[in-house]
Amino acid sequence: MDKRILIVDDDRDVLEGLKAMLEYAGWDVTTGSSGAEGFRQFDAAMPDVVLLDVNLPDHSGLDVLEHIKSRSESTAVIMMSGVGTIDVAVEAMRRGAETFVSKPYDFDTLEIVLDRVGSQIATRRELEALRRSQSRVQRTFPGVSAAARELNDLITKVASAPSPVLLEGESGSGKGIVARMLHDTSIRAGAPFVDLNCAGLSRELLESELFGHEKGSFTDATSAKPGLFEIAAKGTVFLDEIGELEISIQARLLKALEEKRFRRVGGVRDTTVDIRLIAATNRDIAAEVAEGRFRKDLFYRLNVVRIRIPPLRERLEDLPVLAETILAALSDELGHKRTRLSERALAKLMGYNWPGNVRELRNVLERALLMNREGELRVEDLLLDPVVPGAGLEAFEVRPLEEHVGDYVKRCVESFDGNIREAARRLEVSPSTIYAKLKK
User: Fold this and answer.
1) CA nearest 50: which of 65, 35, 70?
2) Residue 94 has what pLDDT?
3) Rounded to an integer, what distance in angstroms lies between the CA atom of residue 365 and that of residue 339?
4) Cβ distance 32 to 6 under 8 Å?
5) Beta bridge partners of 341
6) How many of the other CB atoms lie within 10 Å of CB of 307?
């Protein structure tokens, strides 16, 4: 996205000269020759930088400066004057101007000032991006299974392509990790990575988050705000749970992807965009298209590269590596000594079905670290819920109810390492009932 600048000066020669110079340098330039035009053009364009003459035919430049700062604190304003007095410069700085330059212009000096301001704009966007995403840099998907190796090979092949990517997989399977890897191993790695979970957000909030909004565009819009597409300039936008998007937002997203431009909510000016989109879903998007809940044309646009993230139960041989990686990170976060799992604890984890996938594994290990701050983690530290059976629904078969009850009781006892009293306490029955079920 080009950096946007507004020049307000009543000297037409100055306007044309600066406009030509700045467009050549890559700026998106808007001009105005009076205070009134300055007010109007600023509200329409919401530029990153304003070059503002102090002496205008209808208004003081200081009044225009005040108008600008009341609408956007982040806009950098450079004041210009042919009557450069210290008093005016001080007052301009007091009202929020970035700096003050005198006429006639020294174009080399002005270029240096604008380069510095441009760097500050880039830094501000990067800081905003970092605020939204504090993920650790990870360059390989952890695991030793064939599924993990195939996934890493695919990530390597497509990381540097500009094409959109659609990630499919169950909740907690690691779609966010793969999205971040695709960014960190691409040519966009030095630019922002921003993410948004689309689930549970209203249409108005989603539009504002994606495309930004202008002041007054809706009730709570007390100031202008850039959206993710602007913040992620030259970088990556990751939209999780994209299947939750309303049809109207899907249409705007498709238009932005195809035309590489968009407008802020309430805006009248198009903004060009250069981002890579990575989308993720735990739904069957093809089925959503068939049911009319997801646009076919947007699905085709996203489906250039389609990556399935396997659930943890399909790659249990990766669990020891995952557990070791997660424990190391959690120990650092919690300020604990590095620890490991006992053999019995690891065996218990390997026998679990993990409906919540890697996210559930992380939660279990975090709880275990909080329970045991020293030494290796034991079976009793894991606190796996015995209500969740060890086999998935695909293993279910129709049998007499008594047999299912017996199997359930047996799994509960096993989950407590044969401690029948503890199993009875958790199931809220007497130990004798447990013995009777096991005997049958």
Assistant:
1) 65
2) 81
3) 11
4) yes
5) 377
6) 19
Residue found by looking up tokens 């109007």 in the block: 40
What pLDDT, on a 0 to 100 scale, did the predictor assign at position 393? Answer: 38
CA distance 245 to 30: 34
> How many whole angstroms separate alpha carbon 39 and alpha carbon 271?
20
pTM: 0.59
Distance CA 294, CA 292 (A): 6
- The C-alpha angle 405, 397, 437, rounded to 5 degrees, equals 15
Residue-wise DSSP of 102-143: ESSP-HHHHHHHHHHHHHHHHHHHHHHHHHH--PPP--S---
DSSP labels, 128-182: HHHHH--PPP--S----SHHHHHHHHHHHHHTT--S-EEEE--TTSSHHHHHHHH
Burial group, residue 260, by CB count within 10 angstroms (0-12, 13-18, 19+): middle
pLDDT of residue 388: 44
Q: Which amino acid is at 402?
A: E
> Residue for token digits 């299974």?
145
What amino acid occupies position 38? G
Rg over alpha carbons for the chain, rounded to the nearest Å, is: 29
Q: Return averaged pLDDT per consecutive 10 residues of the chain, 440 residues in all.
A: 81 88 86 91 84 89 87 81 70 82 76 76 58 54 87 90 92 91 90 87 85 81 83 91 91 92 87 91 91 93 93 92 88 80 89 91 90 80 61 44 66 74 72 72
The C-alpha atoms of residue 142 and residue 390 are separated, in whole angstroms, by 23
